[in-house]
Amino acid sequence: MRKPSLATLVAALVAGSLCAGAPRTPAAAEAADGGGGIPLSAAASSAELGFDLDTVTIPELQARMANGSLTSSALTTAYLRRIKAIDPTIHAVLRTDPTALRQAAASDVRHRRGQTRGPLDGVPVLLKDNVNTRDLPTTAGSLALAGSPPETDAALVTRLRDAGAVILGKTNLSEWANFRAAKPTSGWSAVGGQTNNPYVLDRNPCGSSAGSGAALAASLAQVAIGTETDGSIVCPAGMNGVVGHKPSLGLVSQSGVVPISAEQDTAGPMARNVIDTALTFSVLSGTARPGDPAALPKTPGKTPGKTPGLRGKRIGLWRLPSLGPEVDAVMTRTAKRLRTAGAEVVEVTPPYQDRLAELEFPALLSEFHRDIDAYLATREGPRDLAELIEFNRAHPAEQSCFAGQELFERALAAPPTTDPEYRAMRAELKDLSRRSIDETMATHHLDAIASPTNPPAWTTDCARGDNDVIPSSTPAAVAGYPSLSVPAGFVDELPVGVLLMAGDQEDTELLSLGAAVEHRLHAWRAPRYLPSAGTDASR
C-alpha cells in the first residue's frame, strides 16, 4: 500500500482545521476572562485580535493574513505582550528577539505582494536555548556559553528563517539538557532560573525542553522548537498539556545544536495542536515548499480534503502501571474512546526494556564526551569538557539549584567511542530498541504503540531533584524512531499525554494518527496558573 506523503497529510489536516475550527472550551473561556490568576492584560490580546490565541491554528492564521484581517505584526505584538504579562510567573522565555517586529513587518510585505514563503511565514516561533542563533545568545542554560552568540545559525534556524517564520526568542531549558548532575531539577538553569508548570506553578514542567513546553501551554508563541535525546520533547509536551513530535533520527538537521549524543539527538516541533506540529515539521525537515496552496489556503472552509480517522487502526496499549493508578485510569479512558471511534486497541509489553535501561546511559557518557568537545571547539568559552568542569567549579551561580556535575565527570572518564566495548554497547542498543518496536508491531499487526507520556507533574524541589523515571520514551529515542505526545487527559489539574510511537521514518503516518487521536480525545484545556495543587509532592 502506498504511504501518504507529508504534503498530502498536511493538506488533509489544513482542510479539517479550517472546516471545523478550534473549539473554545470552557477552560479557555475562563482563562481568556482572566480566571485562575492569568493577567487580564494578557487575555486582552486575544480580544484585540478577534480570535483566541489559545486555540487558533496556523492555517486559520494564514487564512486571516491572506484576506487582510490579520498581520504578522499584530500577531507578533500580541505574543510579545503575553510574554511580558505572563512570563514573570512561569519563567519560560529567556529573551525575546529585538528584531521580531522587523521580521513580522517583512512578512506583512510578502503577504501583501502574494509572495509568501510557506506555512510558517509570519508565524512567531520560540527556540530552545541550545539551538544556535547568530544574533542571540545560545547558552544551553550555562553561564559558560553566556558570552558572544555563535557565528552562524543552526541549520534548522536557517530553514525557519527561509520559510518566513518570526524568530520570537529563546526558551529556558534544563541546563545542558539535563546531562550535568546525577539528580537534576528539570527546567532549572543558571542562566534562566526555574521554569514553572503553568497548570500548577509549584509543579515541574519536565525536561529538558521545559521552557518550550511551558511557553506553549501559556500561549507565548504559536509553536516552539524542542530537542530530545530521550524524553526531552515528549515529556515536557505531556506535562504541559501540548503536542510534541520527536522525529525519526536524521530528518531534522542537528548541525548547530548543543549535543548530548549524535546517535539519539534530534530537534523537533512542539505546538498546541497536531496541525501546527505537522506544518512546523514540514519546514524543519525540508518538505514544505514556498507557495504551497495546501499550506496557504485563501478562504477558511473551502480547502478540499478529509481529516484522518481511527476506524480500522490497530493500536497497542503499553500501560506502564509504574506511573500509578491515576495515570492508568487516563489510559483506560483513552483506550475506550479510541475503540468507540473504530480503532482496535490491544494490550502489549515491548520486550528488552530492562536491557535498554542498563546499556543506554553508559553509551551516552562516551558519546557526550566526543560530541560536546566538538561543539565547544566552535564557541567562545571552555574549549572542551575538562575546561567546562573547571568552569562550573569556579562559578557559584552554577551551583545555586543543584551543585553536582557527576555526569560531566563520569563522561570525562568514559571509554572513547573508538573503544570496542562501547561499540558493542551501541550496536546492541540499536538492535534491541528497534526490535522492541518492530517485533511488537509485527506480532500484533499494529499501526502504532501507545503509552502514557508522563505522570502528573511532581513538585519542583532542588534538594530532591526530579521524580522522572518515565520509561515510555526510551524505545523510540534509542531506536531513532518517531514518537508523538498528544494530550490525553488530566489527573486533577495536571495534564497527562498519550505517547504514540511507530517504525522508522513513519513520521507522516504517526502525525496522521496523532491528529485523529487528538480529535477524538479532545483533551486540551487552558492552564489556570494555580499556585499549588495541594496534593502529594511526589506525584
Automatic annotation (TrEMBL):
Region (Disordered): 289-311
Recorded GO MF terms: amidase activity
Pfam families, per the entry: Amidase
Keywords attached to this entry: Hydrolase, Signal
UniProt EC number: 3.5.1.4
InterPro entries xref list: Amidase_dom, AS_sf
Coiled coil ranges: none
Signal sequence annotation: 1-20
Domain called Amidase: residue spans: 75-511
Residue ranges, compositional bias (Low complexity): 297-309
Membrane-spanning segments: none
Xref: NCBIfam families: PRK08137.1
The protein's name in its UniProt record: Amidase
Organism: Streptomyces asiaticus subsp. ignotus
